[in-house]
Design a protein that fits this description.
7-stranded antiparallel β-sheet; two-stranded antiparallel ribbon; 9 strands; 8 helices; alpha+beta
Length: about 350
């Protein structure tokens, strides 16, 4: 299986975080994000759409040039409004920032309502993700989060906008080619084959099964609102917990969904967080965004290792599963077993 170039994007994000996001934060009055979201930014390599797989091949979509031209024009108007309002937010004192954030949230909703030809759905989606990232940064500043948290979010928002601006330029230059870049699958999915000494456990709420070694301890609790999944290996060194969700946020494109996950995963409110690898891969029939990281939630805590997986079976719905180890780090056998487990979820 080929590794996704999401790893390169994560390295970029880590580097920016280490530099403190480039811009300083005035904790008494206002904050700045440099470069500003809609300013011209050098095109990074790779772009997000080069790394996103699709569950099944997608045919060429409708992309009439006249509709594209109208979309680009209307999109430009919204981005001008966003840019002007964001500049106001940058120079607004913390005590008065709430109302400006409300204006930015209204503009975010305009993007989601903007009519777009099908080939442009992903542009609206990833732009909305970038806007949410910037708004979340401002909210973090408003809530007086620590400087390390705010600076990490500043860096994440900057990187997100770089990718969005680059992708929009690609779309303007060649809409259908930019769209078709989304359809490059990492590899051909294959049917899951149950390994020796593994068994299936039924996932009641999802009407699916998950496979695991026979000697693992498994608890599938179909609660009132969400299914809880608990897995633990035979010696207790590896444990996972997660949930199933029967529908996603209202994204029209698969790329918007993954882009939102990557952005959110990279900007949690941890005191210390570093991603060691992050890849979008196909395990059997399932698309999995799998991140391995080290984290410390509060200053003085131990640094622990974790794996988070966002699993999208072709039948719909998705799983979020978080895994930890009592060892200093995950072993290769741990990783291989988890990949098998993540790929085993099926009808």
């Amino acid at each position: 299986m080929k590794k996704s170039v999401f790893f390169v994007l994560v390295v970029i994000l880590i580097s920016l975080s280490a530099c403190g996001g480039g811009a300083g934060v005035n904790s008494d009055t206002s904050m700045e994000l440099t470069p500003k979201p809609t300013e011209s930014i050098p095109t990074p390599t790779p772009t997000p759409t080069e790394s996103i797989p699709t569950p099944t091949p997608t045919p060429i979509v409708a992309c009439p040039q006249e509709e594209v031209d109208v979309y680009i024009k209307e999109y430009g108007y919204i981005m001008e409004e966003w840019d002007d309002t964001y500049k106001i937010a940058q120079s607004t004192s913390r005590i008065n920032l709430g109302s400006v954030i409300g204006d930015l949230q209204s503009i975010r909703r305009e993007v989601s309502r903007l009519y777009a030809p099908e080939c442009a759905y992903y542009i609206s989606d990833i732009t909305g993700v970038a806007m949410e990232s910037s708004i979340d940064t401002l909210l973090s500043f408003l809530d007086q989060d620590s400087d390390s948290v705010v600076q990490g979010k500043l860096a994440g928002a900057t990187t997100t906008w770089e990718l969005v601006n680059s992708e929009f330029e690609n779309f303007k230059n060649s809409p259908i080619d930019a769209y078709m870049a989304l359809e490059r699958s990492l590899n051909q999915p294959v049917d899951f084959v149950l390994p020796e000494n593994w068994i299936d456990s039924k996932i009641p709420k999802a009407d699916m099964v998950i496979s695991h070694p026979r000697d693992w301890d498994v608890d599938l609790d179909s609660g009132k609102t969400v299914l809880l999944i608990k897995l633990e290996n035979d010696d207790g060194t590896l444990s996972c917990g997660g949930s199933y969700y029967d529908k996603n946020k209202d994204y029209k494109s698969y790329s918007g969904q993954l882009f939102e996950i990557r952005t959110k995963d990279a900007s949690q409110d941890r005191f210390y967080y570093i991603e060691r690898s992050a890849n979008v891969e196909v395990f059997s029939q399932n698309i999995v965004y799998m991140v391995e990281y080290s984290e410390m939630w509060d200053s003085g805590d131990d640094i622990t290792s974790g794996i988070s997986a966002y699993i999208f079976p072709p039948v719909g719905g998705y799983f979020i599963i978080l895994c930890s180890t009592t060892r200093d780090e995950f072993t290769q056998i741990d990783r291989l077993q988890l990949q098998e487990v993540f790929g085993s979820i099926r009808k």
